[in-house]
Amino acid sequence: MCQGGGVRDGETVMRVVAVATGLVLVCAVAAGCSSSPPAGPTAEQQVCTARSELKTAYDTMASDITAGSFGTARNDLAGVSTAVSGLATAQSGLAAEKRIAIQPQVVALQTTVQTLKESTTLAELGAGLDTAKTQFQSLIDTVAATAGCS
């Protein structure tokens, strides 16, 4: 009788340990899944950052053109080109409907920036800037509305 009672007590202890271990694992997994912060900025945040960088680069270049500083404006154009590429990369992480709203304008501005890079006079750069200005403002507005930028 002592052996039978001992076996039952041992089985009971093993069951309690198994159940307790299972509960601890379930709680640990649940806590790990629910409390972990996002791995980084959202796609929208990345697009808004890229938009801000593009706006800064473009405004700098436009200011130099207005001041008649062709050499500096040409140098600034590299920054605009880099910023447009950054926006193109950032928008690729957006959901399809948001990406579709932005992508054609990004591609058009990339083409215009390439044309501006090929300009050889301040007059050519200024004329190309008129097209770029229209595309730029439209893109900045679309990105703000689509990605929720402030």
What would you say this structure looks like, in words?
There is one protein chain. By secondary structure, the protein is mostly helical. It contains five helices and no strands. It has helices at 2-35, 43-66, 70-91, 96-117, 122-147. The longest helix has 34 residues, at 2-35.
Instruction: Report, as a whole number of angstroms, the end-to-end distance.
Output: 78 Å
Overall 3D geometry?
Answer: elongated
Counted by DSSP, the helix tally is 5
Order of H and E elements:
HHHHH
Low-confidence stretches: 16-34
Summary tags:
mainly alpha; 150 residues; 5 helices
In short:
The protein is an all-alpha fold. It has five helices and no strands. Mean pLDDT is 81; it is low at 16-34.
What's the helix and strand layout?
Elements: H1 2-35, H2 43-66, H3 70-91, H4 96-117, H5 122-147
